[in-house]
Amino acid sequence: MKAGSQPPPEEKREALIRVEGLYHYFRTPQGLINALEDVGLTLGPGEFVALVGRNGSGKSTLAKHLNALLLPDRGDVWVKGMNTRDSASLWEIRRTVGMVFQNPDNQLVATVVEEDVAFGPENLGIPPGEIRQRVEEALTTVGMQDYRSWAPHLLSGGQKQRVAIAGVLAMRPACLILDEATAMLDPEGRAEVMTTLDRLSREGITILHITHHMEEAVKADRVVVMEAGRIVLMGSPRQVFAQEQQLKRAGLDVPQMVELADHLRRRGLEIPPGVITVEEMVQALEGSGT
Q: I need a labelling partner for 189 at 20 to 30 A (CA). Which of 31, 76, 217, 241 fits?
């Protein structure tokens, strides 16, 4: 561990990931660009967190710090008690925190689905028998076991992304980060991925889902909003999306049901506050006698 970087106290070990006073600068010919500024965040075991913000807000930069693809210029990131500044811990940190990126075609490396899922464990030196077991479990978890012998180019976008998730799961991470992994998918593909994330979260895997789709963020346990390299808002989906004007000032949309609720209230309907899902809107309309 670097000189001056002390092991975290016991309370820091309770969080799977803890970010403290994180700064990151990009060096350009025009000087330093402050990409992250005094960011603090914790992710608990099994927590499903949505990270939102417009382009350039620092979401992807923060995500890359969580598995040490980037290292802090100032501050610290702890993963299961390991500091990302400790070069001896990088291998274990990257096994603990897996990442899935936007374009599924860029993440698939083999010509057969099951071989692609096996690629990560093979590089970890896992014995062949265990690799077969991990591949089977991962494909079953994402609902792709019937496609194990398919060529990836024959799959839909949502199916490809689920195979990419299976490839990460086969390495047994404690945390899965999705960096706008649904951005290039159609609504059906996004729904497939969100169903998978819900299942993984219920099974105890920590999820950090970076998304521009507010309907996806509604499904999280907690929503974190970034603007200009800082976290500006954080709380449950109901708490965060109640701050409609602040979100719009940050250049973000709100869930469709929030917009609809506001419209209906202006038309004189009694819609209670905090309606953020279709199911809640149906209940509210039934309660109003509409």
A: 241
